[in-house]
Predict the structure.
Amino acid sequence: MWSAATYRSSRPITRSSGAVGGLACRQEWQRLRLEVLHGLAEAELIRGNARAAVISAEQVVRCDPLREGAWHTLLSALLASRHRAAARQRFNELVDLLRDDLGVAPMFSWEELLEDPPRPSVAGLRA
């Protein structure tokens, strides 16, 4: 989950001249954008808004398909919204992606995902 500690440990964004500096700046903004979207997805899941969590997590996974934390959030949100078949299909996509690109398995299993207790709602986050 995105946190203030993550933000503080991030590299500072600096202005640079030239094409290389501009590219680095765009990449840093993209990285920050994905961190914020992932944090938003987790917050929506905690809040009980699984549909919004799916939408945000899906954007992160689409832009950075190797970000396992976003996959976990997406799959949890799909399960919370009672779309178990879709969650299983997306989990299989993750397994294939990690195996084909990196030669590894996900850090969590399907069974662990199913056993993961529902996230408690946080008082004050409900509108």
Remarks:
- The CA atoms of residues 41 and 55 lie 8 Å apart.
- The mean pLDDT is 83.
- Helices lie at 4-9, 18-47, 50-63, 68-80, 84-102, 110-115.
